[in-house]
Amino acid sequence: MGDILGIERLNFRYPESPKNAVSDFELSIPEGEIAVLAGPSGCGKSTLLRTVNGLIPHMYGGEYSGDVIVAGSSVKGSSMRDLAQTVGFLFQNPENQIFMFTVERDIAFGLENLGVPREEMRARVDEALRLLRIGDLAQRAPHELSDGQKQRVALAGVLAMRPKLVILDEPTSLLDPKTASELVALVARLREELGTTFVVVEHRLDLLVGVADRLVVMDGGRKVLEGAPRDVLFGDDAEAHGVAIPAVTRVQKALTESKGGRAVAGRLLTPSELASAVEGRQG
Ligand SMILES: Nc1ncnc2c1ncn2[C@@H]1O[C@H](COP(=O)(O)OP(=O)(O)OP(=O)(O)O)[C@@H](O)[C@H]1O
Ligand SMILES: [Mg+2]
Prior knowledge:
Number of strands: 10
Largest sheet: 6 strands, mixed
Radius of gyration: 20 Å
CATH topology of the largest domain: Rossmann fold
Order of helices and strands: EEEHHEEHEHHHEHEHEEHHH
CATH class of the largest domain: Alpha Beta
Strand order of the largest sheet: 6-7-8-3-9-10
Distance between the termini: 42 Å
Oligomer: single chain
Number of domains: 2
Structural class: alpha/beta
Bound molecules: adenosine-5'-triphosphate, magnesium ion
């Protein structure tokens, strides 16, 4: 499969800002991947996502050069209406994305705007309710739901548009640990079932290393590291760029550095990998 997203020599500077928020950025994401974007606060992650969903350059002023290609079309040459059907976008705060009086109507909102015929709309809303396992919420009022439920409703509204690419900006920041790991499991399931590509800005790498194919680290508007999460997180530079090293990886590094030769072999990222490694050694 080809690349769903290509970023080519991209530079962007907000109006009246002295420096670029995104500099000389290059990135290619093949269809069906889950890619994680990390880096310190203010390094340009949200800005980069805006260049993918078209808010930049269509809604923001500023200085823009280079190109962003989504599903074969240049973002700067596409209308927001066309982009809305290819790129799904979940804001950090789902409140900003919930408009209607019932969950069902809310999920249908984007489709109504596109003038999708009633029957097809019904089918797509039902599918989204099923995928997110929120059929029981269909008639509820969105404003009376929990943050985790709202997050699912907002994501259902995104998925009902059947985007090839979904970008999520810190989707777990409002969620408790259990709901956050459920959201990550959901992302993995949607990738399996629908082949959707995901680009996720996330600080809590512990949550995502088990499902991510690629980890991209930004610093100061530039891409500073990129690779399989294991390669990036076991490299020498990840900590220097402020990346949160997963707990299991830190435990393993500590074991390796402690005396007595009790190191666990391999390069471990997840609790289940650590469990297998320890069982293997004892058995
Ligand atoms: N609307 C805006 N107008 C002007 N400057 C902005 C705007 N939004 C962001 N910036 C600046 O662009 C730079 C990158 O900001 P951005 O929000 O993309 O960072 P981020 O990596 O998403 O940070 P965080 O992790 O805190 O969300 C920062 O210097 C920020 O101050
Ligand atoms: Mg941000």
